[in-house]
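thought: user wants a sequence for this fold. calling inverse folding tool.
action: design(structure=
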């Protein structure tokens, strides 16, 4: 048995914090089970030195709230947001979704944190390739979710078969060190792994060889180039931390040597413990990056939920705890800035971003495909700074 929640556990509220089940019991006993509220999900704080974040997870929030007697407003999935922005509002009887707050927050925080980190990496990488290699850092039950979050955030591809399949894209990857080790042990020549990879794997898969298993990276890259010639698309440098040295100098040597011998078409991909500083130092030299743990375990985007209005005698009354702004609000995109205003006041500028996605438990607006969301994110990144 795996210690994971099933979809039914999540939508039925069994994955909740226990104090919500006790709250439900108290309100029912007090005869307050029909009280309607507007609950706002907003940014408590962004990670240190972050100026913005990317809102993701809406698709799964809709799944959680389906058939509940609630109306849902939210930013379109993939929207860049800032501190103090409301990102989602649930309107309806509080007991309809009280036990779902934990799940909704968990979905939004986890998704948005991964997507935001992926977007920051993609902003640094620019037109170069960025692949998400973080599955091995995660419990397999959440790999597809992390793949989706990373892809939406801007990664050009994901490594796992299931994660890619669920989004209707092809998985991306090269080869593990295990392949070369087995050929070296059994056949005495690890370069046969590259030859047999070229023979056995579908022609539409780029021939990218791992060039750091037994020999110097420069030497292995040249061996691969001589063996595969024009069929060699690229070499991947994944030197373990204990042997890494100066990765930029290593990549420079490989690039120089390949160019010197007429293999300018061979691209260089770098992976292995990469984060923003390493990517920034290599982005002018490498053609692509495999980024794993730093995206899979990103700084957390801190989202919280607070009731901001309660219906009393048919009238919405603004109310919230101290330190929060009461009232139902709208977010307006005014150039590259956002302006938050009361829902019922005239638009101060720009276009409203909070959109109705569900009404009384029924979906009223079609959710876009992951490719569309990713393109939306990439279009916004053009006008943002890290």
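)
observation: tool returned 386 residues.
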């Amino acid at each position: 048995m795996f210690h994971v929640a099933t979809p039914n556990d999540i939508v039925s509220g069994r994955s909740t914090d226990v104090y919500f089940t006790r709250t439900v019991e108290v309100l029912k006993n007090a005869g307050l089970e029909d009280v309607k509220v507007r609950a706002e999900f907003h940014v408590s704080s962004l990670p240190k030195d972050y100026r913005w974040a990317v809102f993701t997870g809406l698709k799964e929030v809709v799944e959680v709230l389906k058939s509940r007697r609630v109306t849902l407003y939210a930013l379109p999935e993939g929207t860049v947001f800032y501190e103090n922005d409301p990102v989602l509002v649930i309107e309806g009887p509080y007991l309809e979704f009280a036990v779902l707050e934990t799940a909704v927050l968990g979905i939004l925080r986890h998704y948005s944190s991964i997507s935001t980190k992926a977007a920051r990496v993609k902003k640094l990488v620019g037109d170069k390739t960025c692949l998400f290699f973080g599955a091995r850092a995660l419990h397999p039950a959440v790999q597809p979710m992390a793949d989706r979050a990373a892809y939406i955030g801007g990664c050009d591809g994901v490594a796992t078969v299931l994660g890619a399949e669920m989004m209707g894209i092809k998985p991306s990857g090269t080869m593990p060190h295990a392949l070369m080790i087995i050929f070296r042990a059994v056949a005495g020549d690890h370069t046969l792994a590259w030859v047999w990879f070229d023979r056995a794997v579908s022609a539409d898969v780029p021939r990218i060889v791992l060039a750091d298993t037994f020999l110097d990276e420069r030497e292995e890259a040249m061996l691969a180039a001589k063996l595969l010639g024009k069929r060699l698309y690229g070499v991947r440098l994944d030197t373990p931390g204990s042997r890494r040295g100066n990765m930029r100098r290593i990549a420079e040597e490989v690039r120089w040597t390949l160019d010197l011998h007429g293999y300018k078409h061979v691209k260089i991909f770098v992976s292995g413990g990469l984060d923003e500083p390493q990517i920034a130092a290599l982005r002018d030299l490498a053609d692509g990056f495999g980024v794993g743990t730093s995206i899979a375990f990103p700084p957390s985007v801190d989202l919280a939920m607070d009731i901001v209005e309660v219906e009393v005698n048919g009238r919405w009354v603004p109310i919230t705890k101290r330190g929060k702004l009461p009232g139902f609000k709208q977010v307006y995109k005014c150039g590259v800035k956002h302006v938050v205003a009361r829902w019922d006041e005239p638009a101060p500028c720009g276009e409203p971003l909070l959109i109705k996605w569900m009404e009384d438990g029924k979906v009223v607006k079609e959710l876009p495909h992951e490719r569309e969301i990713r393109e939306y994110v990439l279009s916004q990144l053009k006008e943002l700074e890290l």
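thought: summarizing for user.
answer: Here is the designed sequence. The domain at 125-296 is CATH 3.20.20.70 (TIM Barrel).
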